[in-house]
Amino acid sequence: MIVSERMKKWLALKKQKQLHGVDVQKEWEWDQQTAGEMLAKLRRDVVDEVAKVSQLGSLVRGQQLKQLTADTKRVACVLSVTPGSEEQLKQVEEVMLENVPAFDLATTLGAAEMQSLVERDGTLTEASFLAVEKSVDTVGLQLALVRLEGYLIDQTP
To answer: What is the pLDDT of residue 146?
Structure first.
């Protein structure tokens, strides 16, 4: 867990200990709902960013996807929209170069957030895969996906 130095100093003062003697992992009291709230926020961030990038026209599907995958320098990442398409995602990763990340949106977001995303943009389910074009507008989506994926990896025992 990452706690700022300022919070660590506050905890040391509260516990009446030296700063170097404070073990945040053992002494910090967390609300039981914090993990769930963080996961929900990270998922909402991804939904918001996907909707934004879709409105900007930086999500590529269908025939355009085949053209874009030929030039992987223009692809920021690939998104799997169809649930249970993990094998397909691996196939896409094999076709694309190793330096193009692939994310399984259906699994990562969960059913409720995926439904929310489809309600915001119904065209997302027309294809099982979406490619995100490299641009300044898609950096927020890429960061949100990496944050969520990292959080989920840290939460698995």
So the answer is: 93
Q: Is 84 left (phi over 0), alpha (psi -120 to 50) or beta?
A: left
Kindly list the domain boundaries of the chain, sorted by start residue: 1-29, 31-155
Please state at what angle helix 139-155 crosses helix 105-120, rounded to 10 degrees. Answer: 130
- The fold of 31-155 is 60s Ribosomal Protein L30; Chain: A; (3.30.1330)
pTM for this entry = 0.74
Read off the pLDDT band of 84 (50, 70, 90). low
pLDDT in tens, 100-138: 788 888 888 888 888 888 888 777 777 777 888 889 999
CA atoms of 149 and 118, how far apart (whole Å): 20
CB-CB contact of 23 with 13 (8 Å): no
